[in-house]
Amino acid sequence: MNNSPWPRVALGELLTKSEATIEIQPDSDYKQITVRLWGQGVVLRDEMTGAQIREGKRYVAHSGQFILSRIDARNGAFGLVPELLDGAVVSNDFPVFDIDVQRLFPGFLGWLSKTQSFVDFCRVASEGTTNRVRLQVNRFLATEIPLPPLTEQRRIVARIESLAAKVETARDLRQSAVGETKHLWVSALSKAFQPENHVCCEESESATQLLQRQAQAHAKSRSPQYNRAYPEAPQIYKEGFYDIPASWVWTDLGSILTHLVDCVNDTPDFLDQPNGLLGLKSTNIRPYELDLSQQWFMTSDDFEWWNRREAPRSGDIILTREAPMGNACILPQGVRACLTQRLMLLRTDEKFVNTKYVLHFINSTCFKNQILDICRG
Question: Which of 218, 222, 256, 219 is nearest to 237 (CA)?
């Protein structure tokens, strides 16, 4: 924002904090607002009765106002209140501001707030200890932004919205193609794991013999306390979900893995600044893909503590067991990370079991249907 040719104006000259409140009535229904991170919009959180809210007063928001989350403004949680949420109630942690529309076009502020520079100065305007960092409204309003004339603001917004519409159209086309590909992929996986007996080529070693060799190789291995794999004692089942070639067997994950480790099921205090020590969340794990578009970092002490059961390494399968359940990918080279809540680590001995084969099976409907049958919650 510093290189702009336009004059710089303090937000306090353009925004006025609204102090409008309403009395909460026990028998009335109220919409409540939440603000998504990284400029993803202002949305309905829930609808509750006054009796459930159990507070005498709440601040009230109106469409066209600018709203932010004091806790997550440093993570891009702000935006314009949509018409759908006109009259919704918010707590003191979600201040709302009236916009001087004679000087500032609301749409211009809406797009400006999505820039990294805007997020950065909100981070500077926030203070406090970890997990209690809150934006200080006075410091926020003292921040200056470049302010072009209203006609230029509208022209900029029109151009951005035109580009955004084209991007959205391209995204819709891509999603349609991805959806069709996913259906084909599901079908391909399903067929791959249900081979016809006469198609299977002859093997010098059966699956039973392979598991026996693996058991001998790991016979003296002592599993750590939290490792639920048992390669030294593989299980073989007489029946399965469909017919398989004579040289195959039905077994279970614990039998073919060397490590099956649940994560430490607690959420650490993440840092505000990157330091190279990644704490992976379930949102980072997608089918076949480690998505690092959002990253969370940990102190070295927390990183070591969350890795105490088993530190993930490249080539491991990372599996989500909740929110959402069943996503799996392979941890790529060069990623130093630990697993936080809702994640599991799966590791094979490549001399006996191919990791990608296991990954394909976990992403198949055969695996997911079994999980859906036994999952709870």
Answer: 256
Q: What are phi and psi of 347, to 5 degrees?
A: -135, 140
15 class by beta-carbon count within 10 Å (0-12 exposed, 13-18 middle, 19+ buried): buried
Who has greater pLDDT, 145 or 196?
145
Q: What is the mean pLDDT of residues 198-227?
A: 81
Which string of DSSP letters, residue by residue, matches 190-204? HHHTS--GGGSPP-S
Nearest to 88 by CA among 158, 18, 155, 40: 18
Beta strands in 231-303 (DSSP E): 259-262, 278-280, 285-286, 289-290
* Cross-strand partners of 261: 227, 345
User: What is the pTM assigned to this prediction?
Assistant: 0.53
In Å, how far from its chain's centre is CA 158? 31
pLDDT of residue 52: 85
In 10 A of CB 276, how many CB atoms? 10
Collapse the DSSP code of 133 into the 3-class scheme (helix H, G, I; strand E, B; otherwise coil) and give the result.
coil
